[in-house]
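Batch job 17 of 40 flagged for manual review because the log was empty.
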Amino acid sequence: MSEAAIHYDLSQRARLRVALVSDTHGDLDARIAALVACCDLAVHAGDVGDAGVLSALRANDTALVAVRGNNDTREKWPPAHHSLLRALPEQGLIALPGGLLVVLHGHRYDPVAQRHDKLRATFGEARMIVYGHSHRRVFDRSLLPWVLNPGVAGRTRTFGGPSCAILTASAADWEITEHRFEKI
């Protein structure tokens, strides 16, 4: 595991609702923000784009794990928010009831045709790997660990509309609910 990873242990909770989002590029869709506000934890898989997105994800005291994407750079963030940008790790390792969730942006796992195999080989101890970068929704539950890309939670290249997923995690079961909204 990379030293740029951050570790969270929420495994002692009986049940958690986890919002999975990515690629907001500075603009969190309000319908997705409303879903996140009903969750215990928000997980952002990079290309956050702005500190305002981080604040919106923390609404209603929702806990947040967000990682840095390839577009989360000093040149693209306002200077006043550079300290928040520096605090974003490259990976998040989150112990949940029933297993480990890994979150990263995914841009270092090319070529695309081999991305899921490479992620599974690198994070074989995980129950689920969440990534972004491609802006394409992917819910690959064919093997363990599951590999998911929740799609774009903002407005940039949504390929059909903003989307996210909600994971309900307990020691006995993990359930994923997919959400896609009409493009505005």
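Reviewer: the log was empty due to a logging misconfiguration, but the result itself is present. The first strand starts at residue 5 and ends at 9. Unflagging and moving on to job 18.
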